[in-house]
């Protein structure tokens, strides 16, 4: 496959034209320009400013991920004969991409214990069956999971139904991605989200990007990084894998960038997977040795500095260098650039959070920002770069295991109800409870719970022990075929731009209003309509809440405004159309919402060093996918035409006696994958990368004890050559399961 010289550019434009031909240029343009928030990442775009407009008012703002999601929602309905023709076994043979592009779901479907195929079921029967199974299971044996693409209104109603049903077993996909960010930030600065706005990013002179690849996963952020470089600022990239788009990117909406390309990274550092705490400790040590820290800020606005300083000084340089995998010269370069900066922003994604020490990784970033007073001033701060377009909003409005007490008090007062008091369970705890037979029913509001789980074999067994699982979905995914319970319901829902006005929250704490639009198909229902009817069927008999009222989004917004601090402006948003930033999160003054009013340094121990010769695997997303959704099999930025590959440093390929494109077996403590092709990649020696979600088969269920986030980025693996049998080999076949 031909390798590109930069990310974005003409390849992105050609892809746009190809997608437009698939659904029609006028239809796609109209959909993209509608006043609806983007359906993919949580970078602000759309809403009442109009589609293709970001929070700063810049037009045009659109990316390949937006196009992929929009075109997938605009594809035709699944043919009536599809499910009668393809058995459940045959559906298992379809790739994630083939399932996604099978068409839009338009009819409720069911597959029971004796069924060989999915079969259609009426809405009345489907919701009646779901209500009956929830009553049989009861609140102590049911759990509720939401992805990040649903609206605030649907998420709020979802968690309200679960709690009035009697359970706090409510969680969302953040527990498998950015929960470590929320925990680490809350413990240190008192805010669990971004401390900056998009305008702050536009005025920073240094952006430190750690453990992320926005060129593929958040392409609109690349314009901001380009502008920082044009202003004479710097971008430091920290990533074990050298990513093409983070070296040079052609922003399609900027003619200079499109024609000539834009340099992104002014310094590119490639640590070992899991070497971030050591790297950041090394930078901190250089700053302390050179006395280039903000003593006044440390004295007036922080606490815990002396033990932090002692921990940094106790980390000897040989250990720092061995653990990080980064030469001392590069660490000193990092410190040089940072020490000259006046406005620095630290951004990170799952390369930081997907570790057994994910919270410690986040705390290490906070430590480095605090050393130079880069939190609590305009143009500087912290930015967890969120994936799903409304995952932060779902956390804000209560799709979490443990509601904050002030939200409980407000809800109980507004509704005249008593909410359950028992502790909730996070996502992994719910799946583990299912595996142990302690759960009987599950309801999934969007997403792919199976596909997002580590240890695919374990996840399939766990979900298979449930009596019933219900998925509210727009298209098919691997969860529908490998995450089935004894009885599985698929309830087709409308996309965000096919229902009434809804709200979403960006990664910058900005609440957007989407106008919605007319439904494209008969059959699918809005998520709040399904949840309101379910509430009527399950709860109305002894519940003071009139669920029939919640068929309207505006009614739900009024209740959110009453119950959730910071969301009070929702009460008037239908009239004013005024979008807003949630108060109390953006930190432009060195005052912190902690008990002491100060930010907190955290002394950290370096993670244990890796064993000699160990190969450590991280799972990655391709340029042609969004989270678990695979739109295209090829990954054009990395020059890969297929997904059944393992990217390795050429020295590791030679050390193990392998050759390029050799077919191997990859083995971990969780599982074994066969038929994987060895491909060279620009990755730090001793490390490797494979595509998520397929490589979840190799990821153990180990989690960070503080945040319960799985360690998708740090899996010890071994590689064994095998003889290739191209006719009988099935890509990504799991040869054996975890014993």
Summarize the structure.
By secondary structure, the chain is α/β, with parallel strands linked by helices. 36% of the residues lie in helices and 16% in strands.
Provide key terms for this protein.
739 residues, alpha/beta, seven-stranded mixed β-sheet, six-stranded mixed barrel, 30 helices, globular, disordered C terminus
Task: Walk me through the structure.
This protein has 739 residues and is an alpha/beta fold. A hairpin with a 2-residue loop joins strand 22 (625-626) and strand 23 (629-630). Helix 9 crosses helix 21 (358-371). The strands form 7 sheets. A 7-stranded mixed beta sheet has the order 3-2-16-15-14-4-5. Residues 726-739 have low confidence and may be disordered.
Sum up the overall morphology in one term: globular
| Low-confidence parts | 726-739
- Helicity range of the residues? 25-40%
Continuous helix count: 30
Distance between the termini: 38 Å
What fraction of the residues are assigned to beta strands by DSSP? 15-25%
Radius of gyration: 25 Å
Secondary structure layout plus pairing:
Blueprint: E1 7-8, H1 9-23, H2 25-33, H3 64-74, H4 82-85, H5 88-92, H6 96-100, E2 109-111, E3 119-120, H7 123-137, E4 142-146, H8 152-165, E5 170-172, H9 179-189, H10 198-203, E6 206-210, H11 214-217, H12 221-230, E7 234-238, H13 244-247, E8 248-250, H14 255-260, E9 262-263, E10 267-269, H15 276-290, H16 295-301, E11 302-303, H17 305-314, H18 317-324, H19 328-340, E12 344-348, H20 350-353, H21 358-371, E13 381-384, H22 391-396, H23 405-415, H24 427-435, E14 441-445, H25 456-464, E15 468-473, H26 478-482, E16 487-492, E17 502-505, E18 510-514, H27 527-539, H28 553-563, H29 573-576, E19 580-581, E20 599-600, E21 615-620, E22 625-626, E23 629-630, E24 645-648, H30 650-655, E25 663-667, E26 671-680, E27 687-691, E28 715-721, E29 733-737
Parallel strand pairs: 1-8, 4-5, 4-14, 6-7, 6-12, 7-10, 11-20, 12-13, 14-15, 15-16, 21-27, 24-26
Antiparallel strand pairs: 2-3, 2-16, 8-9, 17-18, 18-19, 21-28, 22-23, 24-27, 25-26, 25-28, 26-29
Helix pairs in contact: 1-2, 1-3, 7-27, 8-27, 8-28, 9-21, 15-18, 15-19, 15-21, 24-25
């Amino acid at each position: 496959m031909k390798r590109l010289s930069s990310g974005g550019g003409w390849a992105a434009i050609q892809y746009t034209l190809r997608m437009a031909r698939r659904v029609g240029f006028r239809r796609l343009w109209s959909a993209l320009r509608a006043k609806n928030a983007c359906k993919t990442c949580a970078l602000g775009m759309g809403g009442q400013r109009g589609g293709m407009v970001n929070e700063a008012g810049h037009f045009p703002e659109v990316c390949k991920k937006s196009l992929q999601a929009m075109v997938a929602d605009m594809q035709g309905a699944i043919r009536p004969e599809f499910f009668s023709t393809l058995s459940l076994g045959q559906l298992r043979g379809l790739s994630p991409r083939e399932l996604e592009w099978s068409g839009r779901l338009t009819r409720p479907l069911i597959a029971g214990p004796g069924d060989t195929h999915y079969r259609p079921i009426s809405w009345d029967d489907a919701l009646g069956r779901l209500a009956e199974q929830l009553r049989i299971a009861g609140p102590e044996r049911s759990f509720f999971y939401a992805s990040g693409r649903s609206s605030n209104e649907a998420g709020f109603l979802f968690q309200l139904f679960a709690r009035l049903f009697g359970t706090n077993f409510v969680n969302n996909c953040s527990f498998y991605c950015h929960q470590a960010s929320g925990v680490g930030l809350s413990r240190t600065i008192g805010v669990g989200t971004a401390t900056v706005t998009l305008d702050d990013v536009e005025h920073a002179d240094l952006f430190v990007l750690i453990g992320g690849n926005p060129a593929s996963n958040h392409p609109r952020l690349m314009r901001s990084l380009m502008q920082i470089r044009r202003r004479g600022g710097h971008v430091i990239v920290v990533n074990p894998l050298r990513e093409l788009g983070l070296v040079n990117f052609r922003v399609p909406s900027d003619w200079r960038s499109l024609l000539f390309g834009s340099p992104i990274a002014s310094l590119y550092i490639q640590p070992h997977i899991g070497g971030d705490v050591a790297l950041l400790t090394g930078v901190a040590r250089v700053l302390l040795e050179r006395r280039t820290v903000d003593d006044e800020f440390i004295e007036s606005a922080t606490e815990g500095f002396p033990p932090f300083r002692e921990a940094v000084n106790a980390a000897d340089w040989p250990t720092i260098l061995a653990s990080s995998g980064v030469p001392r010269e590069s660490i000193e370069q990092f410190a040089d650039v940072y020490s000259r900066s006046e406005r620095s922003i630290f951004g990170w994604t799952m390369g930081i959070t997907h570790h057994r020490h994910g919270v410690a990784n986040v705390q290490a970033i906070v430590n480095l920002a605090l050393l130079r007073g880069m939190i609590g001033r305009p143009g500087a701060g912290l930015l967890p770069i969120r994936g799903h377009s409304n995952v932060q909003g779902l956390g804000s409005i209560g799709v979490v295991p443990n509601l904050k007490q002030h939200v409980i008090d407000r809800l109980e007062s507004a509704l005249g109800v008593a909410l359950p008091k028992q502790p909730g369970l996070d996502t992994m705890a719910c799946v583990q409870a299912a595996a142990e037979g302690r759960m009987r029913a599950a309801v999934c509001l969007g997403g792919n719970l199976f596909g997002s789980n580590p240890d695919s074999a374990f996840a399939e067994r766990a979900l298979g022990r449930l009596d019933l699982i219900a998925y509210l979905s727009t298209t098919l995914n691997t969860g529908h075929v490998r995450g089935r319970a004894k009885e599985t319901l698929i309830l087709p829902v409308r996309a965000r731009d096919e229902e009434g006005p809804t709200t979403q929250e960006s990664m910058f704490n900005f609440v957007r209003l989407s106008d919605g639009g007319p439904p494209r198909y008969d059959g699918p229902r809005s998520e709040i309509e399904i949840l309101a009817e379910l509430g009527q069927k399950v709860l109305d008999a002894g519940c003071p809440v009139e669920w029939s009222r919640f068929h309207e989004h505006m009614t739900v917004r009024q209740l959110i405004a009453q119950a959730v601090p910071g969301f009070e402006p929702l009460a008037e948003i239908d009239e004013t159309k005024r979008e807003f930033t949630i108060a109390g999160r953006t930190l432009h003054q060195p005052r912190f919402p902690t008990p002491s009013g100060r930010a907190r340094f955290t002394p950290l121990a370096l993670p244990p060093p890796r064993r000699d010769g160990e190969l450590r695997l991280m799972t990655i997303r391709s340029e042609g996918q969004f989270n678990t959704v695979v739109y295209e099999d090829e990954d054009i930025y990395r020059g890969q035409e297929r997904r059944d590959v393992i990217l390795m440093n050429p020295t590791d390929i030679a050390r193990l006696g392998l050759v390029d494109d050799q077919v191997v077996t990859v083995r971990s403590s969780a599982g074994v994958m066969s038929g994987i092709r060895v491909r060279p990649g620009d990755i730090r020696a001793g490390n490797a990368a494979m595509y998520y979600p397929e490589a979840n088969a190799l990821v153990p269920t180990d989690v960070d004890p503080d945040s319960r986030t799985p360690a998708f980025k740090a899996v010890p693996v071994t590689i064994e050559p095998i003889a290739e049998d191209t006719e009988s080999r099935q890509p990504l076949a799991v040869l054996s399961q975890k014993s």
